[in-house]
TrEMBL record:
Biological source species: Microlunatus soli
Family indicated by similarity: Belongs to the NAD(P)-dependent epimerase/dehydratase family.
GO biological process, one term: galactose catabolic process via UDP-galactose, Leloir pathway
Location of the NAD-dependent epimerase/dehydratase domain: 3-254
Superkingdom of the source species: Bacteria
Protein name as catalogued: UDP-glucose 4-epimerase
Reaction(s) catalysed (UniProt annotation): UDP-alpha-D-glucose = UDP-alpha-D-galactose
Coiled-coil regions listed in the entry: none
Keywords: Carbohydrate metabolism, Isomerase, NAD
Amino acid sequence: MTVLVTGGAGYIGAHVVRLLRDRGDDVVVVDDLSSGVAANVGDTPLMELDLSVPEVVEPLEKLIDEYGVQSVIHIAAKKQVGESAERPAWYYLQNVGGMANLLLAMQHAGVDKLMFSSSAATYGNPDVPAGSLMREDGPSTPISPYGETKLVCEWLMRDAAAAWGLRGVGLRYFNVAGAGWPELGDPTAFNLIPIALRALTSGKQPVIYGNDYPTADGTCIRDYIHVLDLAEAHLAALDHLSQDDRPHDVFNVGTGTGSSVSEVLAQIGRSTGYAVEPTIGDRRPGDPANLVADSSRIRDTLGWSATRDLAAMVDSAWQAWEPTHGTPEVPPH
Ligand code: UFG
C-alpha cells in the first residue's frame, strides 16, 4: 500500500518514513521544508507543498491519484508553544488550515484512513494530584494556541468521521526524544535534552526552569518517549486503521513513567561524561508540574507499548549530536 506522510522530512516524520520503507510499504512525502530536510527521506518521492493554502487541495488530489495513496499520516505542523502565543492566527492557519485542506483532498480523492499527530499539549496545565496519569477521556484544556490547534484538529477528525466516514486516529505525543539513526536526530530543537547538550558542548551549564514544584525533587516531571518507539506507534495505528472500521479516535503515546528535569540532566551527565552542574532559573510560564501518560488505551487497543528507556533516549541523542553537529549558540531562555 502507498502511504502519504506529511511532514515526512522532519524529525519524527523521517523516522516514520524509514520504518515504513524498511517494512516494504510504498511512501510519498509532502513537506514544505520549512524545518524538514529533504536528505532525511533519501530517495522517497517528496513533493514540496504548503498545506495551509487553499490552492494545495488540487495538487494533493493529483498526488493521491498518481501514487495510489490509500492512507495518510499527517505529521506536518508548527510546534513551538511560545511562537504560537505570539502568532496565534498564523498557527491556526498552519495547523488547522493544513488539516482542513488535507481532509478536503482526501474526501475528494476517496481516501478514508488518517493518522494525525496530536500532542499532550491538549491537556494544558492540569490541576491534578502528584502522580496522576493523563487519560484520553479526561479533560482537555490546552493553555497555548499550539495545544488548541491540536485539539481543534482532533475535533475536525471526529467531525469528518461523522460526516463522510473518515477513519481517524490521533496520537497524543508526550515528550519525544532521542534518535533511531544518528543522522535523523534533532539537535536544533528547543527541548530540554538538545538544549542541555548545546549548553554543555559550549562550555556552559543547563538551566533548570524552577525547582520549587510539588514533585519529589522540586523539578517538573514529563513522560519522555523515544522517537523510535513513537514511530513504531504510527505503524501500529496505521495497521489498526486498515483492520478496524471503527477505531477509537485518540491515544496517548508515552511510556507511563515520568522523569524529572534533574533526572534527565543526571542521565545526560552519565551518557556524555560531562560534569553537569545545572543552575536554577525562574519557572517557565505555563509549565505543568507533572505530565505523564496513562498508556493503557494504546497498549490494550493497538498492542503497542514503549520498549526504550531514558538512557537509550539520551545515549542516542548524544550519538546523533557528536558526529554531525558543531557547537551552536545556546538559544535564549
Ligand atoms: N526545561 C528546563 N530547562 C531547559 C529546557 C526545559 O528546565 O533549558 C524543562 C521545562 O521547564 C520542562 C521540561 O524541561 O519542565 C521539558 O521541557 P521541554 O521544553 O523539553 O518540553 P515541554 O514539556 O515544555 O513541551 C513538550 C513539547 C511541546 C508539547 C508539550 C506537551 O516540546 O511541543 O511537550 O506537553 F506541547
